Amino acid sequence: MAQLRAVFASKESLQSASREDLSIALMGIHAFEEQVRFIKGGYAAIIDFFWDQNEEDLERVKRSLAHLLFGKEEFIRRLYDVLNFPEWKIRHFGESCALELSGTARPEMCPPMNGRSAKGLRYIGFNVPAS
Q1: Which of 41, 34, 38 has the alpha carbon at shortest distance from 116?
Q2: What is the mean pLDDT of each successive set of 10 residues along the chain, which is 131 residues long?
């Protein structure tokens, strides 16, 4: 969690992060880490799989994450961009990852939310739609 907060503390800290720093920070997102069950090789393979699926393009991933967290448009628009537009989309980084990261790194922007927390809210009676 400390690595996640350090890497995503500002646009500048994100831009200066190495691939290793960013990889460790991404593993601090529970929704990201939970993808391990779908990846052959488990924890040892999740980061390599992620970078392979994103064509090893560190700068593109950082640009998309910076847009999500620090862009000028309204947050909901940036979230939509990162989830839907090829220019911004990060493979194997879906809605739960984006919402959890946004809420953890920038809690003033939105609360941290992932599939697990949505399930808990539904259990106690809130009408939280499934993704």
Answers
A1: 34
A2: 93 98 95 88 90 97 98 96 97 93 91 69 71 58
